[in-house]
Amino acid sequence: MGRRRRRSDDLSGVLVLDKPAGPTSHDVVATVRRAAGQHRVGHTGTLDPAATGVLVVCLGRATRLVSFLQAGHKTYEARLVLGVETDSQDADGAVVARRDARHIDEHQLCEALTRFQGVIEQVPPMVSAVQVDGQRLHELARRGIEVDRPARQVTIHDLVLDGFTPGEHPQASFLVTCSAGTYVRTLAHDVGRELGVGASLTALRRVANGPFSLDDAHDPQELVAGDRAGVLRRCLTPAEAVARCLPRLEVDDAARALRLAQGGRLEAPPGPGVHAVFHGARLLGVYDGATGRPALVWTRPEELAAAAATDPTPDEAG
Q1: What is the CA radius of gyration of the chain?
Q2: For residue 78, what are the contacts with CB-CB under 8 A and spacing of at least 6?
Q3: What is the pTM assigned to this prediction?
Q4: DSSP label at 265?
Q5: Residue 8: pLDDT above 80?
Q6: CATH assignment, 13-70+212-233
């Protein structure tokens, strides 16, 4: 008798975790994969092994939503040391330069930070996963190869000094809210260069990833040693997760909802950006607000038909 195939869609949801220091984001995903007993698991933004904080993990069909859930702002608590540069731009790297930075005071650092707010350019660090000529930079770095990397535009929405300790190598904590794709280690490195003494990142904690915060987060250890089924049941549904991230549009008419489930366009596109379209509590899909075209059809026609007999109508649910 052949082996029964395990369905990868048995559980479809979004789980917010508080990643500890040590494991990679891939390690955490592997833990979730084992606990959920399914293959399709992904996350919406890598954290370095030493970094901690919010890691949003998608399971089953919800992995199709990753690109829509990872586009929001990210907020970090971070710490840097002035006068110490490393080859990785953080505490895990080898020190490549030391300078006496005791002349840098809190006021000078604040002034430097203000110059990094708004749209800036960053050169991705060699330890990043960015690809150059088809090769990931961190793979080249492990072989001792450094290549030219094109600068990329990122946006620093808010950058606030939270604490300052003077000394030969002053330490500072700061809060930063930034666009997806921002390297906080590179931000620390560049601020040090701006001050003429160099700097490196010594600690990083992601406190929010778009609308998902530490208040939503579970300890990954609960998936190993605790009530695994209970934690997995506390996953956000795909509809709940998308509704947090995207503007919401309602379609009341059942016939219109069916046309959208069949891949049709929105009849009255709302404008630029992507929008989550709902029929009552049911997510129909994600649509381009400028063209009305579906970026992702979530509810299948047969699912909509089957639900019609049991789901309350939007008026009844209202």
Answers
A1: 23
A2: 173, 174, 175, 176, 184, 188, 201, 203, 204, 205
A3: 0.87
A4: P
A5: no
A6: 3.30.2350.10
